[in-house]
Amino acid sequence: MLDNLVFHESFDSTRTAGGGAEPNLAQAQAEALVSLLLGHSLALNNTYAFDSRGVLELVRAVLAARDDVNGGIRPSAPARERLTQARPFLVTWYGASSFVEACAAQLRRCDPGDLEHRFLLSAWNAIDLHPDLRSQLADGLLAEPRPVAPSWLEEYPKLTGHFDALQTIIGYAENYDRGVPASQQKGTDLLAYLDCYHELGGEAGRLADLAERWECPADIAMALWQRIDRELSQDGGREKLASRSWIHLAAGMARDQHDPDLGLLEQLKELIDTFYNARLAESSYAEHAFLSSVPRSSDVDELKYVNALAVGVIGHLRPEAQGPPMAGVFTLAADEPELEVAPLRQLFRAYWEIIADDEGRLIWQESCDEVNGLLRAKSLANDVKSREIWAGRFGEAWADHMSLLGRQLPEVVRTDDGNLRVAVRQDGVDYYYAHHAEPSADEGARLLTGDEVDTAMATSRYVSNMVRWVSG
Questions:
Q1: Where are the domains of the chain?
Q2: For residues 434 and 464, is the Cβ–Cβ distance under 8 A?
Q3: What is the pLDDT of residues 52-98, one digit of tens each?
């Protein structure tokens, strides 16, 4: 159940709060579809399953598509039971005995006398500063035998959809071991990553060397170090840095006040968010498959540099935390005219139709197992010859899987160039995502080159993950 889990940073609840979130929503949907077609299950922790608009909309679309396909299958057919028991998601929760209790606890983390330290709501932002409404929603979620919507919910049309989606997730997680408590193993928390960053900056040249390796300008890396150093030196600094809420509040305030430090605060927010999501990936059993990315709604190069450096720090502190040898490019519709855009629900229907096909599913599953088995085995290739052999086998397996998906889903994907390309639509705007493998016999990981980044940005492309992982 846990072998092929992937944790997507694009599911981060803070990315789809407020206006202008359409590119971030599209990215989350496109990446999710690609991961499912590669045979992965998507790791959803309670924070995002409850409070990420991207996740709430995604789960509704995926499971509604499943029900569409199931409705056309006779009740006694094996495919019907297969779809019912499938695990496209694994829901985890922390610090509570159930997913619902974890959601209620987050709602109640809101002291009317100390709103600055509340649990910030994203999808439910309309009631973020209303402790009474938060408490009533928590009570409704805990109602027996099923959650009951509070009477005021109808005054917030967007929230009624979120409540329906949340009920769907609750029902999904209750069956077939699709909801489990988060890992109880001691993981690497946010403060540990920040301490590591601070220590690297305090030792001659070490942070500069890491920044150079990950192609992050030294002045950006040092400016972040100086701000972290300043925060740690203040009374209560460590307690403050143990949570990410403060940096989101600080960046928001700087934006409203046109503070000249806004750029630095946004960069620090990107650094902290990446570390925070790496911790969530660990607790969600996806510590070896954390797909990091920058928000798609921003085209600020500095954030991409910071994201790359953060991934480098994670690898420095946790050498075992290797990313998959894949990367993606997120583009606007004008750049990929050959791929038609289908409704989101139809895209996910295609995924379920593969699973419902008795013969096609076996071929697809065998191909997924070959690709994913090689991904898990890449760390065992510990010499040049072994890495060369691994890279060759992986390249062949990837090409075979692309060919298979092209034959099975000609109306949904394009795979003719070795990339897995999908298209999604958000609020009338079309977006494309190209996912590609980069097998190599060389050790380590590298950034996209400057020319590659320039080319991507000049064509209105957004680099989904600045890091191009290779075997090692």
A1: 5-181, 190-283+301-323, 334-469
A2: no
A3: 999 999 999 999 999 999 999 998 899 999 999 999 999 999 989 99
Query: Using CA atoms, how far apart are residues 120 and 130, in angstroms rounded to an integer?
Result: 11
Predicted confidence (pLDDT) per residue in 201-254, tens digit: 987 679 999 999 999 999 999 999 999 999 999 999 999 999 998 999 999 999
Q: State yes or no: cis peptide before 75, omega within 30 of 0.
A: no
Query: Residues 6 or more apart from 201 whose CB is under 8 A from it?
Result: 207, 221, 222, 225, 228, 229
Question: Is 189 strand, coil or helix?
Answer: coil
Residue 8 CB coordination number (10 Å): 28
DSSP state of 126: G
Rounded CA-CA distance 91/146 in Å is 18
pTM for this model (two decimals): 0.87
Question: Which amino acid belongs to residue 375?
Answer: L
C-alpha to C-alpha distance for 468 and 284, rounded to whole angstroms: 23
Question: Which two tokens mark 252?
Answer: 């928001």
- Cα distance between residue 240 and residue 117, in whole Å: 10
Helices (H), 145-189: 157-173
Chain centre distance of CA 10: 4
Residue 271 to residues 22, 203, 234, 264, 319, Cα–Cα distance (Å): 22, 20, 20, 11, 18
Q: Which two tokens stand for residue 112?
A: 């009317």
Amino acid at 435: H
Among all chains, which residue has been given the structure tokens 């769907």?
Answer: 168
Between residues 327 and 185, which one has the greater pLDDT? 185
Partnered with residue 434 across adjacent β-strands are 329, 421
